[in-house]
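Anyone opening a protein record will find just a pair of labelled lines. With that in mind, the following record should read easily:
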Amino acid sequence: MGSHDKSDMVAEIKNGETSSRDTSSSHAQGDKGGFVPHNQNLDQAYWYVHESSNTVEATPDELRRLRRKVDWWIVPIMFACYTMQFIDKVSLNYAAVMGLNQELNLKANEFTNAATWFFIAFLIAEIPNAIILQRVPVAKWLGANVILWGIATACTAAAHNYATLLTARIFLGIFEAAIAPCLILISSQWYTKSEAAPRFSIWYAGLGLGQIIGGIVSYAFQQVKHPAFSGWKIMFIVLGLVTVIIGFVTFFFLPDTPMKARFLSENEKVMLLKHVSVNQTGIRNKNYKLSQALEVLTDVQLWLMVLLTILQTFDLDVLPGNGTCMRAWNCAYFCTDLNLQRRHHDLLGHTDQELRLQATESGSSEHAVRPRLHRKYPHRWLWHSAHV
């Protein structure tokens, strides 16, 4: 839809009534969550609010209580998913410290290739993910992918050579590719743009918690001594099982849309939909619009964001070591090449405690301060430029 159509739809949702151009078109009706709109160009949230008998605007106190209710139900699940995707992703580096390379008899750049192919699969899978999310329930898709990447993590314990390790990492990258677009889409369904920024920072802080938990987990499983079953294999199985459990929780307890939220009353659903309608992004619409996709690709802001992300990654997260570039929080393998103390490294993050302390301090301050400043001073390109 164009900008004028979106503005009209927002006004109609606010007023709880339909314009003359829409009243002339008929649409099939069922229950609140199962109607089939005649006009597929209009979002399902529009029809839900239009068919509701609630036309009262929510007060600021009601919105505050509603936001808190949504926060306690939605954000912890997103936070848990993002934390486990980080731990599962970097677990290969912890396993390298625990003897994976020797047991699998990896040679030359095979370990680096296995790590790299995760990101190649991750990148390629992003494109079909964007198309699939237009067609399937977002929470169900997220839950299914969390379960599948948990299984892929656990199956890494069965790797016995380079080929099997590479296969497990590729599947892990494919399934983890769903995490970011799903969480961003879910956040946009439940919050206005200004409200979403602090929630982004909360679930994104799962990276920091993942660093903390990951090092402790690696240190703990290094204490496991079993002749038939190495500590790194047990680590992969345990992490995989935890991820699968979180995946099932996501699948069954995270609502696909506010209209299907069992923890909200009908009035609360309508109040929330009216509140977030100012985003002009809609909640649920299966009609794929190629023109809008092409419009995004021609937006210079998108490519500036891509450039900024690449520059930030190279500038902040890369260490040169032994002929390869490795992310600072993935430097376990790099540290073993320098003959550093393995257990001290995994427990404290680094022998000198510098890398992990710097990452923790900078990440904590950024997640705590920047979202509030963004909400108060919403000049996002000014913030991006200053950050770079």
In short: The first strand starts at residue 318 and ends at 321. Residues 60-97 form the longest helix (38 residues). Confidence is low (pLDDT under 50) at residues 1-38, 316-368. The radius of gyration is 23 Å.
